[in-house]
């Protein structure tokens, strides 16, 4: 399956005023695996616009309640495990090529609403940046280490 392309996507590391990172538990899994908001880009969609769209679609947070602080200098990739490649995205992709953005949340916690038009998450919380790799599914742990490295200058404490 390594001849398959990567799905173009965007990811968001959203920080609150205390420097904690927004993570959410996917609705389609019973395993307690948390992730940062992320999603596929529409054909021809700019990565920044796609990131803001995905953030609102997944969390109810509109662009007016965030400030973009930084963008990772290059796209980051991950491969799906072989058993998932045939199931996810109709088997068209080997994984994702993600453009990551660091954003600061300007709203209040009670304004976050996971009950969107197409809910993807069952719960959310603020987490320490250093614990992110341990919260995500194993095949995305290296990706999360790369995201932490990309934004290390903007994060409080060791990543």
TrEMBL record:
Residue ranges annotated as motif Nudix box: 39-60
Domain Nudix hydrolase residue range list: 5-149
InterPro entries linked to this entry: Nudix_hydrolase (IPR020476), NUDIX_hydrolase-like_dom_sf (IPR015797), NUDIX_hydrolase_CS (IPR020084), NUDIX_hydrolase_dom (IPR000086), RppH (IPR022927)
Name of protein: RNA pyrophosphohydrolase
UniProt keyword list: Hydrolase
Enzyme nomenclature, EC number: 3.6.1.-
Keyword Cell membrane part of the UniProt annotation: no
Provenance organism: Sphingomonas natans
Function, in words: Accelerates the degradation of transcripts by removing pyrophosphate from the 5'-end of triphosphorylated RNA, leading to a more labile monophosphorylated state that can stimulate subsequent ribonuclease cleavage.
Transmembrane domains' residue ranges: none
Cofactor: Mg(2+); Mn(2+); a divalent metal cation
Domain of life: Bacteria
SUPFAM superfamilies assigned to the protein according to its UniProt record, in alphabetical order: Nudix
PROSITE patterns recorded: NUDIX, NUDIX_BOX
Similarity comment: Belongs to the Nudix hydrolase family. RppH subfamily.
One Pfam entry name: NUDIX
